[in-house]
Amino acid sequence: MSTLNYTESTLVPEAAVYRRVIPAGDFWMHEIKAGQTLRILDLEGNQAADTLFYYAADFTERYSAQDTIREQGALYLTTGTKLMSNAGRPLVTITADTCGRHDTLGGACSCESNAVRYGHGTRHMHSCRQSFLLGLANWPDSSFDLNKRDLPANINFFMNVPVTPEGGLQFEDGVSAPGRYVEMRADLDVVCLISNCPQLNNPCNGWNPTPVEVLIWNP
Amino acid sequence: MPLLKPPAPSGTSFTTKRPSGPRPVPMPLIPEGSLLREEIIPGGVAVSFNVRRHTTLRLTALESGSNVSFLCYNRHELIDRYNMADTLKGQHTAKLTTGHILVSDMGRAMFSITGDTLGWHDPIGGHDTPAIVAQKWSEKNYQTARNAHHRNSHDLFLIELAKHGLNRRDLVPNINFFSKLQSDAEGRLGFASGHSRTGDFIDLRAEMDQLVVFTTCHHPMDTAKTYGPRPVRMQLWESAPPAADDYCRIMRPENERAFYNTEILYS
Predict the structure, then answer these.
(1) Cβ–Cβ below 8 Å for B169 and A65
(2) What is the spatial distance between Cα B189 and Cα B201, in angstroms, rounded to a whole number?
(3) Is the ipTM of this complex over 0.90?
(4) 10-residue block means of pLDDT along chain B (267 residues)?
(5) Nearest-CA residue of chain A relative to B168?
(6) What's the pTM value of the predicted model, to 2 decimals?
(7) Size of interface A-B (CB pairs under 8 A)
(8) Inter-chain residue contact B257 with A120, CB threshold 8 Å
(9) Sign of the Cα pseudo-torsion (B151, B155, B160, B163, in order)
(10) Beta pairing partners, B95
(11) Is A167 left (phi over 0), alpha (psi -120 to 50) or beta?
């Protein structure tokens, strides 16, 4: 295992303007204003939080995994990483991280990808892209006409997917633990969509999906 | 038509490694009489075209340092499209070569890589943009350079997608054929300069009818000192449908299931 980059936050939960626990397998969709800070807290450990960001004024500008990787010339996300949009603008910047490494290559589980990966018997198990689509379908501003085209490659906070120098992709036990968190400051007004991953077929949630908490602070 | 059933549970790549035989050797000569189309695509441009199921698209590097930024969509339902994460995680790979398949976000096999002289194509690095090209090689606009102006994949993708009613919502993570990014233990990426040589080729057998969109612009992390995107040759040829023991199909149990998901579209 390579170096993990730990950076603690100075923000205290008592000063947060918003707190919400996302139960295992549920989604959360919420606007974060430019300058506000979002913390995602892994309450019980080893829980993947599949996350997307959209520019609030125009959802066609959204998180881009390839632009984010290319901009920093590195695969893993941690403190200092700018999460880039498909228009080349930073949407949010990671400002604290007590986990040390997060993935953006592994994507989100879906019924269709579960059937491919684990057999057709898993086809109707709950999955992240079901949660994402329900989140988009319930978003009050219907002017964007949201659907599967609006699910770009996502971030997997608290997930560990190392790439080997030989080009292999590994799925390893999480590097997270109870109480670990990642924090990011919004560079633009963004809408954040999180699926608290319900995957039961691989170790990304330690075989037992658990809640995460989101906290927001004003600047 | 034979009765189609989901492949019986036969493990996952966590537990199963197959096949044991050697990789197919790339076949330099396209079988006589099977060629349907052949074109030279200049460097720095975009094309889009339909590819029919069970035909093979061959891309050949005509100069060292080529790059093809590539996207594909189900011709009949464009919302069903190539998905980087589903392709990579289903095959536990961060590179593409012989035996791998391109998988759609509906879990369907789109293309199979049936031949490859190179061993590594990049599915991660993305595509170049106006800002990247201007920063690396200075801006050279139409007003001063006419059709020798510097072009970039981002603009060309948006133009080409719009010809099919698609927009930036559909500009998903792309593949870069003929390019290689290698990561170190910290995940830092390095561009392998001079990776492809003249004559390198890749064969992509279509498992479904598709819309293909690709550009011949530089890789976004290309370290070349001067702007100079390279031409490629594209050939389309009639190829046999994959057999039950096809190398790409049986490479992994995941692939077998993705093939099934495509085959039921045509049943």
Answers:
(1) no
(2) 24
(3) yes
(4) 77 64 86 96 98 98 97 98 97 96 98 97 98 94 95 98 98 98 94 96 98 98 97 97 93 94 95
(5) A60
(6) 0.96
(7) 151
(8) yes
(9) negative
(10) none
(11) left
